[in-house]
Amino acid sequence: MIPALLPNYNRADLAFERGEGAWLWTTDGRRFLDFGSGIATSSLGHGNKHLADAIAEQAHKVMHVSNLYRIPQAEKLAERLVANTFADSVFFCNSGAEANEGMIKMMRRAMYSTGKPERFRFICFEGAFHGRTLATLAATGNKKYLEGFGPEVDGFDHVPFNNLNAVRDAIGPATAGIIIEPVQGEGGVRPAQLQFLRDLRATCDEFGILLGLDEVQCGMGRTGKLFAHEWAGIEPDVMSAAKGIGGGFPLGAVLAKEAVAKYLVPGTHGTTFGGNPLACAAGNAVLDVVLAPGFLADVGRKGQALWAAMSKVVAEFPRVFVDVRGAGLIQGLKCVVPAGDVQAAFTAEGLLTVTAGDNVVRLVPPLVLTDDDLAQAVEMMRRGAARVQAALDAAGKAAAQ
């Protein structure tokens, strides 16, 4: 008999009742260091007073009115995002998949409205993940995720990551633009080469097509810049964001330049919940912290420290790990053994992580983790790796007998 809660997730047998900073406590009293952050979402960690107070204060006033009326909290958040990014305008929604749907529609509508309705296709990349809606599944291109959901939504062509020749070969008369994650999260924590991002910008300009960036997972400070593309010194035409921008409260956004955004006029796109007062109160509270002087630089410093420490662990356990990859506080351990085995060993030591494609264990801690949190996490990784290596040794001895 099917459970009341649909069993479409392989849930770990852990239930958390409270959290503080980078730590979580289960209902049975165990403590875990959270290097998963709800899949790169709890950017300010757990129990952050500023965020919780902002949500509670707004909840006592008004949570939802719909976009039939002005929403001052959304106007404020949009103005702040515009002031601190490439964008001229922002559309708010509820999730990363919705943000990517909005980005796709915005790019297609811009082509249609400028007399190029035949340009509706997008170049996407192998290893991508853009969401679970029918269109974003097609943009993702993973056959495992597409299976059983009928014909693929047309309009998405996939090429190898970090391969400019493949991109240029794929551009045709129906191409509207390119969509790319500056750091592929689900695909194995694979960063786009900075020169590749610069070349994509130049290629879009050359061919008169649009550059769309998916910063749902790698944005909002996670790499040590407000958005990851800033490291390449480029500006997209449009960008999706979500996850960390609400600090755990559901919030997504499409940020765009005026030349693209202006064609989504009333009646072309919408949302019931997106950008409501409660969500935008959360978004503004997150920005208060992330934009504070020195915060992003400290994220970068902690990212470098984590990289250096994990590199030593990788060197110590070459039968378990291949290398470290990523940027800032979105990093991954490429594994020799199954990544799920490593994740389980880390959990046994009290460290929560997330697996990713390409046999990678993903580490995306809260941006507010302390230096002591980082040091404890590395020791947990070392002990977890020793567990895995001991299991390898035991298996080898059993096989030899």
Range of helix content: 25-40%
Shape: globular
Characterize the largest beta sheet: strand count, sense, and whether it forms a barrel.
7 strands, mixed
> What ranges have pLDDT less than 50 throughout 5 or more consecutive residues?
none
- Could you give the count of β-strands? 17
Q: Any idea of the CATH topology of the largest domain?
A: Aspartate Aminotransferase, domain 2
Average pLDDT metric: 97
Computed over alpha carbons, the radius of gyration is 22 Å
CATH architecture of the largest domain: 3-Layer(aba) Sandwich
* Series of H and E elements: EEEHHHEHEHHEHEEEHEEEHHHEEHEEEH
| CATH domain class of the largest domain | Alpha Beta
Structural class: alpha/beta
In spatial order, strands of the major sheet run: 4-12-11-10-7-5-6
Number of domains: 2
Strand content: 15-25%
Overview features:
single chain; 401 residues; Aspartate Aminotransferase, domain 1; Aspartate Aminotransferase, domain 2; 2 domains; seven-stranded mixed sheet; globular
Write up what this structure looks like.
The chain is α/β, with parallel strands linked by helices. It has 2 domains: 16-34 and 294-400, Aspartate Aminotransferase, domain 1, CATH 3.90.1150; 49-290, 3-Layer(aba) Sandwich (Aspartate Aminotransferase, domain 2). Helices cover 39% and strands 18% of the residues. It contains 13 helices and 17 strands. It has helices spanning 37-40, 49-59, 72-84, 96-113, 134-140, 143-146, 164-170, 194-207, 258-261, 277-290, 295-316, 339-348, 371-400; strands spanning 16-20, 23-26, 31-34, 89-93, 121-125, 156-159, 175-180, 183-184, 190-191, 210-214, 238-241, 252-256, 321-327, 330-335, 351-352, 354-356, 360-363. The strands form 4 sheets. It has a 7-stranded mixed β-sheet with strand order 4-12-11-10-7-5-6, with helices on both faces. It has a 4-stranded mixed β-sheet with strand order 1-2-3-15. The protein is globular and about 70 Å long. The mean pLDDT is 97.
